[in-house]
Amino acid sequence: MGTEPRARTPRRRIRLAAVLLMIQGVLMEGGVFLALPVLLILGIDQADAAERFAFVVPYLNEYLYLMMVMAGVFGALRVVAAIGLLRDRLWGFALAVIMCTVTLVLMILLLPAGIADGLLSGGALVLLLTAWYGAAPISPPEPGSR
């Protein structure tokens, strides 16, 4: 009886990571992607849209609409990874780790929105890795020790 909560802890961490990925994929990335058709229908020029929201790297502002399409791709991949995690699939775990890692690498370029991306992806990555590795030590036990 005493080991039941520990046995469920990795599963809870993986589910929480899936929720974080789902939030990030649907609300953050999906919302940006869904704003693109609205901007296009309203006839808002890319340069006008970039005036109201700016990235740290000016190059990204010049291609804001392409960045919005890219957000849709990232969002879809996050949702697929979250579904894989919720279905207890190893491919979902691998895709989630890749997506979190890529996001952490790119977040500095996507400031200010990168801060929220970093918090959600960083949190999900920590949950995934602690669920996978648990309390396993880094170094092997020394000979003669228990």
TrEMBL record:
Transmembrane segments: 16-44, 64-86, 93-113
Alphabetic keyword roster: Membrane, Transmembrane, Transmembrane helix
Protein name, per record: Uncharacterized protein
Organism the protein comes from: Sediminivirga luteola
